[in-house]
Inverse folding.
């Protein structure tokens, strides 16, 4: 007998058969009918557990665009929050969260309810490390879903993985720092894209209700895409297409490159040498074109520094003033949209519109693009 059928819920099936046999024979008393309903519910739960894939099957160990580790990733309909600390949850808190997210009223203790939330144990065998996962089953009109809560990292050795696999400094920090996770999964195997889209809408609303200050990143196993968490994503999670939030990074990527990289040094040198060309074009441009003249400079705060883009408003012989276009990663006293100034020794790059829709400048961008291809 295969391992799969060794785990079939024979005990609950046998218990269910007894009141069924009595019903077909002499009939059942009210107590017998109650016993039948309880046995039926028990068998249904055990059958769902038996049909479920083993915990972690299809959960992938590299949530940032690495190659897929198994075909199961293609069908795992799930969204995951990476957390900075473990969550203290129980059946009551999960039920309350789903009720708030979906507007469903649950009636715990009623054996005839169509909607319920209950803890369950996954089928054996468990993979190593699955002991730290708590499982909750949610039966709602939209289908059967699972909420998984873990007090361990989603991937093994996240710091080492992030250091090797993720170039974006923002996202790398989020992956490195996470120590726990929580996910909402669809508990059915389907390739129907309409059904999958509907499931993501439900999953997104549930996960949004679980968002909090401990959220560092959000991950989609099916897409194998990961983004930094931001409270602004909660509204998108509640929308018609929550997975569209993975179409682009939450914030502009922060890419690090060695200070002694010869190609980067040459790109910066060319930007500085050709700066008068930028200034001349800026002063002769029409008022409707000047907002397309941007420059990149180094901004410092104590020992930290970041290179960010600025929409140019004014140029003097020693200084450039403009509007900051980026969200700083580590600098606390600056923010996107702030009016900033920098001196010429901080200049790093520039771009302005050329003829026929082309652009002139962007010397460091070419170096970063070449680095990505390598």
């Amino acid at each position: 007998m295969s391992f799969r059928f060794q785990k079939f819920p024979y005990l609950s099936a046998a218990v269910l058969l007894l009141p069924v046999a009595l019903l077909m024979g002499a009939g059942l008393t009210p107590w017998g009918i109650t016993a039948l309903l309880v046995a039926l519910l028990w068998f249904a739960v055990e059958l769902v557990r038996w049909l479920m894939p083993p915990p972690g099957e299809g959960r992938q160990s590299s949530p940032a665009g690495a190659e897929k580790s198994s075909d199961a990733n293609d069908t795992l309909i799930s969204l995951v929050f990476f957390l900075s600390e473990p969550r203290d949850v129980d059946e009551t808190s999960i039920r309350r969260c789903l009720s708030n997210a979906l507007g469903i009223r649950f009636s715990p203790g009623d054996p005839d309810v169509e909607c319920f939330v209950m803890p369950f144990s996954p089928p054996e065998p468990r993979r190593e490390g699955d002991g730290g996962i708590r499982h909750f089953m949610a039966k709602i009109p939209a289908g059967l879903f699972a909420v998984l809560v873990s007090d361990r990292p989603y991937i093994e050795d996240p710091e080492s993985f992030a250091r090797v696999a993720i170039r974006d400094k923002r996202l790398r920090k989020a992956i490195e720092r996470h120590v726990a996770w929580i996910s909402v999964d669809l508990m059915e195997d389907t390739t129907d894209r309409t059904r999958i889209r509907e499931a993501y809408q439900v999953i997104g609303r549930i996960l949004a209700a679980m968002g909090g200050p401990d959220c560092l990143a959000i991950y989609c196993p099916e897409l194998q895409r990961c983004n930094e968490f931001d409270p602004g994503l909660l509204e998108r999670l509640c929308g018609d297409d929550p997975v569209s939030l993975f179409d682009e990074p939450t914030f502009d990527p922060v890419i690090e490159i060695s200070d002694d990289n010869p190609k980067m040094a040459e790109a910066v040198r060319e930007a500085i040498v050709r700066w008068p060309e930028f200034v001349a074009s800026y002063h002769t441009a029409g008022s409707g074109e000047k907002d397309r003249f941007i420059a990149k400079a180094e901004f410092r705060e104590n020992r930290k520094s970041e290179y960010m883009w600025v929409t140019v408003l004014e140029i003097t012989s020693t200084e450039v003033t403009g509007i900051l276009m980026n969200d700083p990663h580590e600098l606390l006293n600056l923010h996107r949209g702030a009016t900033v100034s920098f001196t010429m020794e901080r200049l790093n790059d520039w771009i302005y519109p050329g003829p026929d829709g082309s652009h002139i400048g962007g010397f460091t961008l070419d170096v970063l693009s070449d680095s990505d291809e390598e």
In short: The first strand starts at residue 78 and ends at 83.
